[in-house]
Task: structure prediction
Amino acid sequence: MTHPRLLASALVVVALALFPLGAGNYPVKLLQEILIWGIFAMSLDLLMGYAGMVSFGHSAFFGIGGYVAALALGRSPGLVSALALPALAAGLAALLIGFFSIRVSGVYFIMLTLAFSQMFHAYTFQVSWLGAEDGLVGIPRPAVPGLDVSTLRGFHAYLLVLLGLLALALARIVRSPFGHVLRGIHENEARMEALGYAVDRYKLLAFVIAGLVAGVAGSLYSQFNGSITPDAFFWKTSGEALLMVIIGGTGTLGGALLGAAAFILLQSLVSTYTERWMLILGATFILFVLFAPGGIVGALRGRLGLRA
Amino acid sequence: MPGDLFAQALNGLAYGVLLFLLSVGLTLIFGMLDVVNLAHGSFYMLGAYAGLSLIAGTGNFWLALLVAPLAVGAIGAVIERSCLRPLYRRPPLDQVLLTFGFIYLFEDLVKWIWGGRIRSIPPPDVFSGSVSVLGAIIPSYRLFVIAFGLAMAVLLFFLIERTRLGAIIRAGVFDAEMTGGLGINIHRVFTGVFAFGAALGGLSGVIAGPIQSAYPSMGVTILIPALIVVVVGGLGSLKGSLIGSLLIGQAETFGKAWLPEASMLIIYVLMAAIVLVRPQGLFGRPLK
Amino acid sequence: MSAPLLAVEALSRAFGALSALHRVSFQVTARERRAIIGPNGAGKTTLFNVITGQLAPSGGRIRLEGAPIEGLSPHAVARRGISRSFQRNNLFPKLAVQENLRLAAAAGAPGTWSLLGRLERQRGPLERAREVAEIVGLAGRLASPAGLLSYGEQRQLEVGVALATGPRLLLLDEPTAGMSPEETQRMTRMLEALPRDVTLLIIEHDMDVVGSLADRVTVLHYGEVLTEGTFAEVKADPRVYEVYLGEA
Result:
């Protein structure tokens, strides 16, 4: 990373860390929501922006992470329940769903990922042992050694550390030899096959990693709210993450965080004035796809004269 | 018991017909424009609501049956012309993303105009009763739906396979660039096919109204089975849509009756099986 | 005579009623340089597509050192040591020339699964990429995105990418297509200078290139093998002349 970028990132991290000291409860909660959705959006960006796989069912892993965390934390509120189990469950689900969705061509991938996430929604909506429509409530905060995560500031620190670790890990993956293979697949999948790469296997690993991270995000969401509902699996959840990635700019990781911030702020603002937030969301989606496919980061890069 | 079984089979058939009309539009649009129109369920929903208003306003189901699909088709044409056409040069994925945005738009629009409550739609007077068929008591409207759907299937096959317009569509589905090279205004055909697909979706929605009622989330609810039909039947294949929707229609209906908690799972298992064994679907073009 | 490196036996490929390849048979020995010629539509690129697994054959066999490879997926065929270049540039336009070549060189290496490693640590592919860049004359353009290269340079890169995988059998589909006479000469010299342990199978329209490079020539016409022989023999064959006359 170049020096100005490093400095800017450091400043952002410091600002985020100090935020609860100055601001009131509501803004801090909003920020925490941004951080959680930011993790979710980054995981989708790994898939979309780097591997070129557009999943319309990413909420499946978010939801699995959320529900597994809810169930596990109810029994044993430690970090294993809070992070390891949800990630594992989401990763396994991604392995299974990915296995089916990737073996068929790109178009079927879109349809299968959407269908699978809706399957989870339908299931959790119906069955009573998962709370049906109301979901699961009373989810405790995990016991984190050395930190009281049940307070606003404690949870904030916990979130920041996790976000930092995940962001670093994803950034490292994206620059790794594996990440370069993904980029090659995105650029020209057929040629990668012709060169001898078992493209489907690389895509599956990318899908599993993205699912894993989305699972962590979902679990954090459970912990943040203290509850989880079938909405976590709903197509709208996938769509929101998609829009965040698009707004921020695909293939930039940092853009996903920006997009999450922009989206949540926009939503919070618009919802105070009108009930028609979904309408505006849809219109925003359409407008961005039509006129700003590079997202905020793309526009910024253009402004600064850099190649996208 | 056998009467019940038969009644379920007829219900499954009626549902299958709805799926067929919807998935035909999906598969044609994909075949021609390379776009998976995720907003296709929205056309279904718009058809149902248009039907609701037309019937409420004119009291005439048959008028609604004629006008609602035309209205939805017009909406489809506008969307294609204004939003999809500028994206032709971009990867098809961008267009799919666009249609996804429309799902939000239409669902909230419908909520805004008609409210979020579920609205029931009366069947036409002539089909408002029940009849007894082979020991099964079934609303006569459902028999109408089955008959109408099968008639539409025959009409569509005739249109696609035997007319010049159908030949153009088939050629476009096979190779749009070449068809354009033959001097046919391919852009107009694209708009036409999209509108036609939308109209079929709207038609399915109008007919579905008296059975399923109208509610804002009905679009996505039917989209998923329609996508599964297309995966199972094969993208771009009319025959695939028919067989697929009859299959899925029965699977989902019997699933709901016998294993309500796992009803959805059955169609997903079907889908997964096809993907494993024959990825291009029953009648789709081989993937390689 | 040694066993052939590549043996194509009665290979056929039909598209519905259209027979693009019909019972094509020929053999290529190791270290040979074979040219495949024939008028447009003769099925040459289809032949390559079937050999490399992009298309499944409708019938017949393909053997690489005796082992059947027909019906294998493209990446499996590539792993067995067959690499190909494409008639129309099939590169990674947004990636740098060096990355284009490095990706090719790294194919099949275990390092590509490294999630947290650094790219620079994988010296092998990087060095091979620079080597191949030298060979194809693009050493000065390593940092340029492939999409910004001139057409001729892209053609060179196209060959380079196929070469960088270190194949035993290199299939080149009209490597000099669309090139100027100087560029064509440069490409021909470059191909001549390749080590003989890379067996070449080249589709070409330019007869000068064929004359300079090819040990033997196979002529395809309407999906069938018309004749085979040295360049001189084929050139003298009146049937070949006729077949091309229809093309002029």
